[in-house]
Amino acid sequence: MSTLTATATTVIHRAYRLTLDPSPQQAEQLSQWAGAARYMYNHAIGAKRSSHRLWLQEVAFATYEQALTEVQARTAIKIPIPSTPDFNAWLTTIRNTHRDAAGNGSLLPGRDGREHEPWIHAVNRSALVGGMRQADEAWKNWIASIQQTRTGRRVGYPRFKKRGVAKDSFTITHNRKSPGIRLTTTRRLRIPTFGEVRIHDHARRLQRKIRAGSVEVTSVTVNRRGHRWYASLTVEETIPMPRLSKRKRAAGIVGVDLGVKVTAALSTGDLIPNPRIKALHAKKLAHLQTALARSKKGSRNRAQLVGKIGRLAHLEVRQREGYAHDLTNRLVNTWAIIGIEDLNVAGMTRSSRGTVEKLGKNVHAKAGLNRSILDVAPARIRRLLTYKTFWAGSQLIVINQWAPTSKTCSTCGAVKAKLALAERTFECQVCGFVLDRDVNAARNIAALAAVAPSTEETQNARRAAPGKLVTGTDEHRVAMKREGLQRVIFAQ
Question: Which of 100, 325, 356, 459 has the most CB atoms around it within 10 Å of its CB?
Answer without folding.
Answer: 459
